[in-house]
Design a protein that fits this description.
This is Mitochondrial adapter protein MCP1 transmembrane domain-containing protein. By secondary structure, this protein is mainly α. It is built from eleven helices and no strands. It binds protoporphyrin IX containing FE (HEM).
Length: about 300
């Protein structure tokens, strides 16, 4: 303290003081100090190496996150068509043959050579692979931050945690993959054509393979819908973990969001299953030569051929 005082120029009684300094009124700092002004220190963004990699001023995580987000928009378009065709229209018409007409009407929009890759295959590939790439990127960042050098260091540092939404997403891959294979790839492989596949093909499967059909569709629709609704909540900034830390009622808001998101998921799952299982699942077998073609397809499926 004494040293500090000694450094200060002492002001005298009169306006000049011993060093002839003028005392001024204290006033707020109006200008940004030089060291905080732009250009004195490089900003964190311009310091990143990403600009040299052609990423503009953003890092790879920013772009991977955006790919993951916007690709799911395209899939949402398809999912909306799909819930309409397989549940809402059957619920309204209460007739599978009648609903098949609508299915065939909208099919060209998402199953053409151009639209199928654009609204289904490529967005899904982009969505899943950007999620995986983001995971590896974050892992590398964490290892760098902790200065992991040996194999043992790496083993002790945990991987980025897997959110419930991501876990549902991974669970959906084999289910949606199997569904796509049975309704799209396998019929083309067997008959060179997909045109006779309709809701009646699914109804037929419910009779010949009731257990696989009921359990499989219930699980896939449940897991898928929960993933979509939690996913959308995240994109809209409405998930429980996105409540601001400074919000005074954050515990209450978090809890409320959790209940609302799960309630919407349950309602949507219920709606999808009401039409899918309740109408399509109970329509029974198709007769005639088309029915025999369906039987042939189901019986030659490697996995479920023997399962009921
Ligand atoms: C309406 C469509 C969809 C939306 C809105 C959506 C949304 C999301 C969101 C927000 C995440 C990130 C979760 C997190 O970081 O906590 C995510 C991850 C994921 N999604 Fe989706 N998704 C959709 C469709 C799908 C579909 C159809 C599949 C697979 C068949 C899928 C597979 C995945 C996987 C595997 C991940 C995990 C990536 C990772 O974090 O490692 N998603 N999705």
């Amino acid at each position: 303290m004494a040293e500090e005082k000694a450094d200060l120029p002492s002001l005298g009684e009169d306006d000049g003081g011993v060093l002839n300094l003028t005392e001024v009124e204290p006033s707020p700092v109006e200008e940004t100090p030089l060291e905080f002004k732009e250009g004195y220190f490089p900003s964190p963004a311009s310091r990143s190496t990403s600009s040299t990699l052609g990423f503009g001023n953003h890092g790879p995580a920013y772009y991977l996150h955006r790919i993951q987000k916007y690709s799911s928009y395209a899939f949402t378009v398809f999912a909306s068509f799909h819930i309409a065709n397989t549940s809402i229209i059957p619920l309204i018409t209460r007739s599978v043959p009648e609903s098949n007409r609508y299915l065939l009407l909208t099919r060209p929009y998402y199953q053409s050579a151009l639209t199928e890759p654009l609204v289904v295959a490529l967005p899904l590939l982009a969505h899943v692979s950007s999620g995986i790439a983001l995971r590896f990127y974050r892992r590398r960042q964490t290892l760098k931050r902790y200065g992991a050098e040996t194999h043992r260091d790496r083993k002790t540092i945990p991987w980025p945690s897997l959110s419930g939404t991501s876990a549902l997403g991974y669970a959906l891959i084999p289910m949606a993959g199997f569904h796509f294979w049975t309704t799209r790839i396998f019929p083309i492989y067997m008959h060179g054509d997909n045109s006779m596949i309709s809701l009646s093909y699914i109804s037929h499967g419910f009779v010949s393979h009731p257990f696989v059909s009921f359990a499989g569709f219930t699980a896939m629709v449940g897991v898928g819908t929960w993933h979509f609704v939690w996913g959308w909540a995240k994109w809209l900034g409405l998930s429980p973990s996105q409540v601001s830390e400074v919000e005074s009622k954050r515990h209450l808001i978090r809890k409320r969001r959790w209940y609302i998101i799960n309630a919407v998921s349950a309602l949507l799952t219920g709606l999808w299953l009401a039409g899918g299982l309740g109408i399509v699942g109970r329509d029974g077998k198709t007769g005639g030569w088309i029915g025999r073609e369906f039987d042939e397809l189901y019986n030659s499926m490697p996995l479920i051929g023997r399962w009921r």
